[in-house]
Amino acid sequence: MFRAKLIVSALVTAIATAGIALPSWALPLSPGDRLRINIPADEGLPETDRFSGVYEVNLDGTLQLPFIDPVPVLGLELPQVQQQLTRILINEGFFQPNFLRVSVSIIEWAPVQVTVSGAVFEPGRYLINPRQAGEDDPPIVPLTGNYPPNRYLTVAIQTAGGIRPEADIINVRLIRGGIEQVVDVSGVFTGEPLDDVPLIAGDRIIIPEREIIQSELVRPSQITPQAIPVFLSNLSLPNFGGNVQVQQVAYGSRFSHAVIAGKCVGGTTAINAKRRATLIQTDRTTGQTRVLDRSVEELVRESTDNQDNPFLMPDDGLVCYDSTVTNVTSIFSAIGTILNPISGIELLLRRIFGQ
Fold first, then answer.
1. Is there a contact between 163 and 119 (Cβ–Cβ < 8 Å)?
2. Fewer CB within 10 Å, N- or C-terminus of the chain?
């Protein structure tokens, strides 16, 4: 047992020394991260000869300290960096082991580039934990412990538009440096504890797909949209002012909710009961368009499942059509306008001048 522990300990030490990063639950370092290194033993040296100071991780993932070769720190955690610097400074003969203490602390976590693909609405490459406007060159202060809430797995998924209803959230794949780790993020929906993995530059996230729509995933959450845009068209009157609009609706809304939001339902039963509504959905991957046409009354009163009353997805379109009674009324109104052009002109002038 002791020998097994010794082998594991040696392996971890070797990995840290070589600068090879395994996926970790703690927050590892990425290019652009700013560190403060403090070595009390060099306080008596001239300022230009000290190792203590503020450093930024280079683009190649190394730290450049004076008098020594670049130190690989990409993907390492702060205690690992501290151990590595201690070993190097002792081996290079700069300090005696009994007199050397090294402290490494974070000043600022940098933005990182990651890629997200699979069952998300907007797959692609994203910059997470971006600096706010005016923070491109923040002042260096002696404070440490900057916490980056936007450099985690769930944030990257949300940034990519959030998961789709067919996402396999139990087997999310995180690939870092050729090493793959499977992460379960179902706790976002169940309320169970969730180990949100911190990310580094170059991480790749893949959301696998299932063959079924999971209704429990279609609601606002940490890894789904809060609201989605839907195109609504309700031309019950001539389109003088434009009755087509893009409206934000809560994620998890259904076809029937869009009909209500578009004012396609309600009013006089004899006139509006026969109105129809059409939902237009386009698959973002294949480009295939699905059209669902239903009676408004049937949609509101008789829907029983996702086929009758599907969930709305981003950029869906809803079109409302008038009932036969309304259409006949519009025809007679148009005929009356033709037979009585004076009244038609008066109506037009009133619309133009608002009188």
1. yes
2. N
pLDDT at 111 over 80: yes
What CATH code is carried by the domain that includes residue 99? 3.30.1950.10
> Nearest Cα to 29, choosing from 75, 97, 72?
75
Residue 338 lies in a domain: yes
Token representation of residue 147: 């916490």
Residue 81 lies in a domain: yes
Is the distance from CB of 222 to CB of 188 less than 8 angstroms? yes
Q: Is 269 exposed, middle or buried (0-12, 13-18, 19+ CB in 10 A)?
A: exposed
Per-residue pLDDT at 333 exceeds 80: no
Nearest-angstrom CA–CA distance, 215 and 305: 11
Residue 62 · residue 70 · CB < 8 Å? yes
User: Whole domain around residue 174: which residue ranges?
Assistant: 112-132+148-217
DSSP letter string, 90-103: HHTTSS-GGG---E
In a shared domain, residues 169 and 203: yes
217: number of Cβ within 10 Å: 23
- The number of domains in the chain is 4
Is 285 in the same domain as 193? no
**SS3 of residue 252 by DSSP:** coil
**What pLDDT, in 10s, does the model give residues 29-49?**
999 999 999 999 888 778 888
CA terminus-to-terminus distance, the chain: 92
Beta carbons within 8 Å of 293's beta carbon, 6+ residues apart = 276, 277, 278, 279
User: What is the length of the chain?
Assistant: 355
Distance between CA atoms of residues 64 and 70, nearest Å: 5
For residues 328 and 318, state if they share a domain: no
User: What are the backbone dihedrals phi and psi of residue 26, each rounded to the nearest 5 degrees, phi first?
Assistant: -85, 175
Rounded CA separation 19/74 (Å): 7
Same domain, 240 and 305: yes
Residue 354 banded pLDDT, cuts 50, 70, 90: low
